């Protein structure tokens, strides 16, 4: 499948052939759901914690007499039924991540790319090189491209001036090709890849 290659100013620079086994797969919501859940679970800190009964500092002296006091027979006030006592069954520090087969992860990435291509929300640029890291200049170029909410993907390294100019623009992100992932693709409206990023991606899935 062929698509136009554009320059950063919106003019055409030729065409590129996109492989169908990467950009032409059918949409699979179940695969995308699994991969996104895996990504979000993996990046959770898991540092949530509460104090249990054994963590509370306080006396263990009995509240009152065993009999004849007219109240329940409490041992001490560190239990969870008292104000200031420990929590019962609260969260503890743990790892929320889970394993996902490599084939499923690869299929998820290909599916996300295919969905953008099918929706005509995939653009290929010759490069994203800028002579100066000026945000105002980049905003003008993005307007010519018709892009306001997008993920840019460069080659092995992102152009420093482009990254600098992009840092003050909301709803627009940039990643190197090796950092491309399903969640970031889906959270932005348009996916913009350089020819270098396309080549790196095809090498990755050989």
Written account of the structure:
The chain has seven helices and six strands; from the N terminus they run ββαααβαβαβαβα. It has 206 residues and is of the alpha/beta class. It has a domain at 2-26 and 100-204: Ribosomal protein L4/L1 (Ribosomal Protein L4, Chain: A, 3-Layer(aba) Sandwich), CATH 3.40.1370. Strands 2-1-3-6-4-5 form a six-stranded mixed β-sheet. Strand 4 (150-153), helix 5 (160-166) and strand 5 form a beta-alpha-beta unit. Helix 4 (135-145) crosses helix 5 (160-166). The longest helix has 17 residues, at 102-118. The chain is elongated and about 95 Å long. The model has no long low-confidence stretch (mean pLDDT 93).
First and last CA, distance: 17 Å
The CATH homology group name of the domain at 2-26 and 100-204 = Ribosomal protein L4/L1
Number of helices: 7
Shape, principal axes of CA atoms? elongated
In the CATH scheme, what's the topology name of the domain at 2-26 and 100-204? Ribosomal Protein L4, Chain: A
Number of strands: 6
Task: Calculate the mean pLDDT score and round it.
Answer: 93
Write the layout of secondary structure elements.
Layout: E1 2-6, E2 12-17, H1 20-23, H2 29-42, H3 102-118, E3 122-125, H4 135-145, E4 150-153, H5 160-166, E5 172-175, H6 182-187, E6 190-194, H7 195-204
Parallel strand pairs: 1-3, 3-6, 4-5, 4-6
Antiparallel strand pairs: 1-2
Helix pairs in contact: 2-3, 4-5
Quick take:
The chain is an alpha/beta fold and 206 residues long. The protein has seven helices and six strands; from the N terminus they run E-E-H-H-H-E-H-E-H-E-H-E-H.
């Amino acid at each position: 499948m062929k698509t136009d290659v554009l320059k950063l100013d919106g003019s055409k620079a030729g065409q590129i052939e996109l492989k169908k086994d990467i950009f032409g797969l059918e949409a699979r919501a179940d695969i995308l759901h699994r991969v996104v859940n895996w990504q979000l679970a993996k990046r959770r800190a898991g540092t949530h914690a509460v104090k249990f009964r054994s963590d509370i500092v306080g006396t263990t002296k009995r509240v009152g007499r065993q009999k004849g006091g007219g109240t329940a027979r409490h041992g001490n006030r560190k239990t969870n039924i008292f104000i200031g006592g420990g929590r019962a069954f609260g969260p503890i520090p743990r790892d929320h991540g889970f394993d996902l087969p490599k084939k499923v992860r690869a299929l998820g990435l290909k599916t996300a790319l295919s969905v953008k291509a099918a929706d005509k929300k995939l653009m290929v640029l010759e490069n994203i090189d800028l002579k100066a890291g000026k945000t105002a200049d980049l905003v003008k170029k993005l307007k010519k491209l018709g892009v306001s909410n997008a993920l840019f993907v460069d080659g092995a390294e992102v152009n420093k001036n482009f990254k600098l100019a992009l840092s003050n623009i909301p709803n627009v992100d940039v990643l190197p090709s090796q950092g491309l992932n399903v969640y970031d693709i889906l959270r932005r409206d348009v996916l913009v890849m350089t020819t270098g990023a396309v080549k790196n991606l095809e090498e990755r899935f050989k």
